[in-house]
């Protein structure tokens, strides 16, 4: 029997699969389970002219905006929930340096469903009278071909590369999603099924024996994945279901640093450019603090 091909690569190699100008989908939802180690690597490699397409974003898009990596964002929300506004994103949008295209939250996910089904658009029956339609020329009116009912055609997401953060995967690219999952993990499955290039950062690379024992939890099979990267605490400072909580203290530090461009440049120097890699980034926080973030409640 031929040896199974390993898809395991480094974080730097994975970020190299996202060239300037890529149309990129980032997994997670709002401030939950974002692939932040990958985002920091994109900033470290000084990527430019990216378009991020998704449903709800937070410090992932805000950091890319503050680092000058973005040209366009298509989403329903960019904010830090209880931590406040995404101020880098807001500054870039208000300055005209970043094009922002609004989509309703659930319709944003339907755009990935269109990709999954091989469709150029997704029909939506409830957007009439909504100003999202007024200001988004990519959403077009149509009549239902069966009933004639007025509807709108929303374009497929069309992401070229998708990046999600998961709790575990094997080297061949089988990705484990906990049976007790929440919306961010379900959205990750949808995004992974909609794109030809899927990069998964995982808390732990597990053995083939582990995958065989827990095959029912493999929601993203190996044929859907392009590359696997082991990145413990890879969503920090956002949480990962079943592994660790949000680092609320660092989220507040992030918000304070994003108050002006100069302070945020200093933040990027400290937490992105100075550390030689993700493990050096984790060393900035120390084992005691990271251990305190570990979570068991979300497993039960």
From TrEMBL:
- InterPro entries tied to this protein: CoA_trans_fam_I (IPR004165), NagB/RpiA_transferase-like (IPR037171)
Which EC class is the enzyme in?
transferase
Record key words, sorted: Transferase
Segment forming the signal sequence: none
Query: What is the top-level taxon of the source organism?
Result: Bacteria
Example GO molecular function: glutaconate CoA-transferase activity
Q: What is its EC number?
A: 2.8.3.12
User: What is the name of this protein?
Assistant: Glutaconate CoA-transferase subunit A
Question: What is the source species?
Answer: Labrys wisconsinensis
